[in-house]
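ok so I'm stuck.
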Amino acid sequence: MKQRILHIIPTLDRSGAEKQLTLLAAGLPRDEFDVHVCALTRGGPLAADLAQAGIPLHIIGKARKIDPFAYLRLKAHIKALQPHVVQTWIFAANFYGRAAAMFARVPRIVASERCVDPWKTWRELVIDRSLARRTDRIVVNSSGTEEFYVGHGIERSKFVLIPNGIHPATASTITRAQLLADLGLPAEARLIGAVNRLWPQKRVKDLIWAADLLKVIRPDVHLLVIGDGPQRERLLRFRRQVCIEDKVHFLGHRDDVAQMMPHFDVLWLGSEYEGLPNVIMEAMSHAVPVVATDISGCRDLVVTGETGYLVPVGDRAGFARYTNKLLDDRELARRLGEAGRARVLAEFSVEKMVERHAALYRELRA
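replied:
not stuck anymore, here's the structure
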């Protein structure tokens, strides 16, 4: 009999955890696993990927932070489906999903913690510790995420480290000249990409500041900020204040990032905390050198001086200095980019990520 796996996640937006769930659900062997997905709040763009892969999707429609009716609908759905394993992703689903699975008497429960979460107050951490005692395994994607939760009182034996997976990059269907023309930039422009949601955690203001430093010595540099979020207006205001609207371009959400990324000269990530950043993996798969903050997660991916450079959180001058070094030395940039691509292909494939989850499910079935 196939092992039925139900994944529960808040939404199916194009973010890191959602991408990993979609890749996992589509990649698990169909002759061994019967995979279902439940979105706690709403669907999203990745629902189409699940439909294409033939993965059933159920949307609960949670409307409020505390929504007892959504909890009851979720519990009823789990009881009707009768999964052998429920795996939950991200705090809201980890809370509602695990509680509902426990009361629905699901044989095995797995949670997924995807990020170092300093935003959590003592209340959220009490919930995490309490639910962890009734959880068979907690999947983390980086050593830093595991250390964070062990430090907050969860037993180390609960954790299973499964790094994110990524498919090999495909060639862009547009040329660099076409991209520059589409963006209205000159042919000699050098491109820095920053692909992330506009959240305080991402410290995009630091990147604008670093671009302002670079502007003094390199008039050819343009920073492309791709993504959206609640800090957009504040960041646009800061861009005006430092008079760098001609060099920093807010492009909003784009569905063609995979086509743009191969033409980046450098990728920047200025976050103060992360799990295992998908955007760095994507850049490395395209042989784009990375300059990122020296935090857990980034440290698991970027080997400084070999696949890119790491700088302290908030070190705007460090971003500018290492980026200028890469832009000045094309051979160095090529060497670091190729080393990054080799590292991703060897250690962070989708196939390895899927097989590690499959091995976990088999272990829980035994």
